[in-house]
Amino acid sequence: MCLNLQCNHWLTLDLETVVNRPGMRGGHQMALDVTSETLYLFGGWDGNQDLADLWSYHIPTHTWTCLAKNTADEVNTGSIH
């Protein structure tokens, strides 16, 4: 589901058509850039391992982009910072 702020109602997104998206996780970090309407997702825990990937989600186009598959060599990673 996605909230459409212009119409003030929820839209259903078809996740089966989204090929490129992050996997399920917990303990991740997120930040929102209100100017570019982009949400950033970093790391977390997938139930088996700490994740060190970085994703962006462009809200108007409902598009995920993988910015880095593994940032472990560049930053201190882990879940629940």
In short:
The chain has no helices and six strands. By secondary structure, it is mainly β.
Top keywords for this entry?
81 residues, four-stranded antiparallel β-sheet, two-stranded antiparallel sheet
Question: What would you note in describing this structure?
Answer:
This protein is mainly beta and about 80 residues long. The chain has a domain at about 25-80. About 0% of the residues lie in helices and about 40% in strands. It is built from no helices and six strands. The chain has strands at about 1-5, 10, 30-35, 40-45, 50-60, 65-70. The strands form two sheets. A four-stranded antiparallel β-sheet has the order 3-4-5-6, with no helix packed on it. A two-stranded antiparallel sheet has the order 1-2. A hairpin with a 4-residue loop joins strand 4 and strand 5 (about 50-60). The two termini are about 25 Å apart. The mean pLDDT is about 85.
Strand content: 35-45%
Element-by-element helix/strand order: EEEEEE
Mean pLDDT: 86
**Radius of gyration, taken over Cα atoms and rounded to an integer in Å:** 14 Å
- Inertia-based shape: globular
> With helices defined by DSSP (H or I, 4 residues minimum), what is the helix count?
0
Helix content bin: under 10%
Enumerate the spans where pLDDT stays under 50 for 5 or more consecutive residues.
none
Structural class: mainly beta
Major beta sheet, specifics?
4 strands, antiparallel
Number of strands: 6
| First and last CA, distance | 27 Å
Could you give the order of strands across the largest sheet? 3-4-5-6
